[in-house]
Amino acid sequence: xxxxxxxxxxxxxxxxxxxxxxxxxxxxxxxxxxxxxxxxxxxxxxxxxxxxxxxxxxxxxxxxxxxxxxxxxxxxxxxxxxxxxxxxxxxxxxxxxxxxxxxxxxxxxxxxxxxxxxxxxxxxxxxxxxxxxxxxxxxxxxxxxxxxxxxxxxxxxxxxxxxxxxxxxxxxxxxxxxxxxxxxxxxxxxxxxxxxxxxxxxxxxxxxxxxxxxxxxx
Length: 218
Hints:
Blueprint lengths: L22 E4 L5 E5 L5 E6 L6 H5 L1 H22 L1 H7 L12 H26 L3 E4 L5 E6 L2 E7 L1 H6 L2 H18 L12 H11 L1 H12 L1
Antiparallel strand pairs: 1-2, 2-3, 4-5, 5-6
C-alpha cells in the first residue's frame, strides 16, 4: 500500500486563494497552524518543524484542538466587529397601516411566544448534539459540539510513517467535515416567522405603531 497517496512534497491539497483573507491559530509551540475564513470554516492545516518527534506526535491531536480553538476564536472576534455594520443593513419588513387593536397585539404576542419556543427547542437539540466525524482516509477522528472541537484522535501507527502533506490533508478533511456536520444551518439566522417579522417592524418604527393605534381611537 502506498502511504504517500501520490502526494509530492510540494503538493498542497489545502491551498486557499492567495487573495483571500484568512485567520490563523496555532498551538503554543507553533507545531500546528490552522487557517479559517471569517465564517470559521477550515481552509488549511499546516505542520511545522518538529511534528515528527515521538512526544510531539503522540500529543499532536491535542495541538490540533488548541490551534483550531485559537483560529475559531479569531473568527468569532472578527464577526463581532462586524455586527454594527450588519445591523443597519438588515431589511425591515414594511409595517401594516391597518388599525392596531388589543386583540391583534395579543394574537401577535402569542404567535411570537410560540415561534420563539419552537425555535429554542430546535436550537437546543442541535447545540447539545455531540458530533463525531472521520477523515476520508479514516486515520483522523474529530469530535465535539457547537462547532467547538473537543478531541482529535490520530492513528499513531499510520502517523509514524505518514508524510506532512498526508497528515495535513486528513486533518483538514476531518475538521472541515466536523464544522459542516455541527453547523447550525438555517438556525444560525435566528428565529424567523411572519409574526416575529411583524413585531420587529413595529418595534423598528414606533411612529407607525402610534399612528395605527390612533386610527383605532380616531
